[in-house]
Structure formats: C-alpha cells, structure tokens
Write a structure and sequence with these properties.
InterPro entries: Bact_response_regulator, CheY-like_superfamily, Sig_transdc_resp-reg_receiver
Number of helices: 5
Structural class: alpha/beta
Domain Response regulatory: 46-162
Protein name: Response regulatory domain-containing protein
Modified residues (4-aspartylphosphate): 95
Keywords: Phosphoprotein
Helix content: 25-40%
Length: 182
C-alpha cells in the first residue's frame, strides 16, 4: 500500500480519478516569545565567558550586558580558571574546544575545586563530536548550548538556573559524583 492510498476518498468503483483528502489535524499555535515575560538574573550578576573566539565573547557578552550582567572573558581554560578563583562569577559559559586544556578538563577542575564547585556552568560547542561527547558522558555541567546560539536561547538557559532570588544556582544532581572522583 502506498502512503497516498491512506488519504484516498472512498468512491464508487466506476469513478475515473483518484481524489486525495488530507485528514484534519489540530493546529498548534506557538507562544510568541515577545509576549512571554522573561526572568533575568538580578542586575550585577557576574558571568565569566571562557571561549577562544573573540566573536563569541563579543556576541555573548553584548547579549548578557544588555540585561545588566557584568561580563569577564578569558580565551583559554587556564586563564579562565584563574579568573574564576579571583572574581567568583555567578555563572560560567565554557567552550569545549579550547587551545591547551579543553573544556571538559576545565570543567572537571571546576567541580573539584572547593572555591568553584558550586558555580553553575553552561558548556558550549559548535563541534558535532564535542556535542556527542557531552551527551554521552557524565559531565557535571548544568546545561549545554550549541553554537551558533540565539539571544532567546541564552536567556532561556540562564532562566532555568535561577533561584527565588534570581541568582544562578547549580541544578540538583547535575554530575554531582564528579567532585569526589580523583
């Protein structure tokens, strides 16, 4: 049986043409993102962006600054870890593909460091292999954001992490066993 045969209208045997009828379906109207009230982290929230691309740093920084966030940037994992220890950001955006130490190693260091382990981390990547590795491994990040990203996606990822005081927090159970591994 062909797929189109499923949509055939029942006709008398002497009918010459096949007529097709598409069955009625329910129409789903998406919520207009501009009508939905977005919840931002409180003004002054400090965000560290660790990415070797100046373009990503600039674009993500501009998006976040528009909502009153304070932005710090690092172009490699080593510098990012040092900045995180000094600045104590409320949230970290971490690229996976970095020169030197890659993002997964940096994330493990963050989760094992008593000063940094409670900072929520959103990892980012535009590489398909890194995306597959993220979803197939036990990574202690709160979320994953694929590049390129939209303004709407950035704020949706942050909104998921906000507590009642609008401060980004780690999600319960997000890779919690990693802190104890050596």
């Amino acid at each position: 049986m062909r797929i189109l045969d499923l949509f055939k209208k029942k006709k008398p045997a002497n009918a010459e043409r096949n007529e097709y009828v598409v069955p009625q379906t329910e129409i789903i109207v998406p919520v207009n993102r501009r009508e939905r009230l977005r919840v931002n982290a409180r003004a002054g929230t400090q965000v560290l962006i660790i990415d070797d691309s100046a373009t990503v740093q600039g674009a993500l920084g501009k998006i976040l600054q528009s909502a009153g966030y304070i932005i710090h940037t690092a172009d490699n994992a080593e510098a990012g870890l040092e900045m995180a220890r000094g600045d104590k950001p409320n949230l970290i955006f971490l690229d996976i593909m970095l020169p030197g130490m890659h993002g997964f190693s940096a994330l493990r260091k963050i989760r094992r460091d008593a000063q940094l382990m409670d900072i929520p981390v959103i990892v980012m990547s535009g590489h398909e292999k890194a995306t597959e590795h993220f979803f197939s491994s036990q990574v202690a990040a709160e979320d994953f954001m694929k590049k390129p990203f939209s303004r709407q996606e950035v704020f949706a990822r942050i909104e998921r992490l906000l507590d009642q005081k609008r401060i980004p927090r780690r999600l319960p159970g997000a890779g919690r066993g990693l802190e104890m591994q050596s």
